[in-house]
Amino acid sequence: MKNYSFAMLKGDIFGGLTAGVVALPLALAFGVASGAGALAGLYGAIALGLVAAVFGGTQLQVSGPTGPMTVVFASALTTFGGNFQLALAVVLIGGLLQILFGFMRLGGLVRFIPYPVISGFMSGVGMIIIILQMAPLLGGTPDSSTLSALFNLPSVIESIRFDSMFLGSLTLAIVFLTPIKISRFIPSPLLALFIGTQLAVFAGLETAVIGDIPAGLPDLHFPSFSLEHWSSVFMLGLTLALLGSIDSLLTSLVTDSITHTHHKPNRELIAQGLGNILCAFIGGLPGAGATMRTVVNVKAGGQTRLSSVMHALFLLLLLLELSPLASQIPLPVLAGVLIKVGFNIIDYRMFKLASSSTRSELMIMFCVLLLTVLVDLVIGVTVGVILAMGMLTWRLAQQADISFETNHDYHLTEKPGRGVRIMSIKGPLFFGSTSHMLDRIEAVDSIMDTEEVILDCRRVDLMDLSAIVMLDEVVQYLQGRSMLVRVLVKPALREQLLSAKSSSFNERILFTSLHDALVPDAQLQNLHELDSMGIMQEDY
């Protein structure tokens, strides 16, 4: 604070207020869409926004309810038949898990999640929001399930309420077509909220509205659940924790790229967890770092974390003094705002990169997208990660190359003698490529004049436990066929194999150079005979 100036204070105040203005309609809309009510959205934006701003690891990040977190919370409410306390228990477990992730220093792992999985999931969440908001946009009753919303869409269209459709269409026009010059001063969602509400009130349009929003501080809640619901609560809480962590840390990366700073991922996870725990105790909607609100904060002049605090205090002031005004906001207007959010969440960059992507990557992306929309968020992400791991395993396995040669291609004077076969292995040797090597062993056995085999693994950089076990079996198999076996490896891998404490791997079999491995046949045979008599090498 020594270098904190009045200009920085001015920037923090203006940035925080601007972010708060953008957050207000989104918090109300997310609260209504979740099924918990507009007030839950405001509570979540205030509680999480304040805690994450004070304790977070990203200076200018603005946190609050987001699309993915809202979808998970709505799913929890549906799963438990509208039981609000069980849904809050999910938020509590999610916050505790986020804190655990932070203490386990898992914040940096977000960079290892494959992009097609993230892209498919985010696009799926965007499509879920759009599909679920079509009914309230046209004056119908909102559905809690994407499939039921799709099946009921024809009946909703047949019974359109034209006042609602007019307000919804006007909202879409405002949020999509407002020029950037205007939206810089008045965010298009807030403009749509104001115009739509005033038009509905003064024109007397018949449409559903938010309803009464009591002013004042929230009541204290005590989330609880029984052992009967433990597995469902934990799985939904884990989903909430994972999505909230990914969402927040991706926003942190965006913030770093704009501000040229470096965030502290594990501290950010702990702060997000603390904020979501507070949301669980006050009945607030869970959330995460919000990219759009963070960018608005930075662009509007935010300099320090005080700007994010100002965003939360501004929403708190609105809650205490102006909440009755929000009760007249029409639901079609909120639906139009959320549909714009849904379109913003969809990852169009992946579609642009389709021509340069592989078929497997596109398959993973579309698989995650369809499963997220039509089945379940957790299943979509889980299947996507498993498919990505399988694709990586297959690609690494393809890099492994195993060949036989009688004349070595290394530029050395030593040459294998008659009856000596060299099995050259290169590339990663792990569980995905071991079966290929085992299949090739039959080729050695079929060569009648083979008396000695050299397994040249000097171009193997990776060898996991499966590969060590496989190599042990190969050595025993060839020795069982009365063949003399020697293994060439790098010094580090030689120490790894010696530490395996296997009878197949000893000083007389493992070598680091071809010169040492190509000892005279009689000398090597003598070593094996001494070994079969139980005489140790040091005795020899």
TrEMBL record:
InterPro entries: SLC26A/SulP_dom, SLC26A/SulP_fam, STAS_dom, STAS_dom_sf. Keywords: Membrane, Transmembrane, Transmembrane helix. One of its GO terms (cellular component) is membrane. It is a multi-pass membrane protein. The chain crosses the membrane at residues 13-33, 40-62, 82-103, 115-139, 159-178, 190-210, 230-254, 274-292, 312-341, 362-394. The keyword Transmembrane applies. PROSITE patterns: STAS. PANTHER family: SULFATE TRANSPORTER. This is SulP family inorganic anion transporter. It comes from Methylotuvimicrobium buryatense.
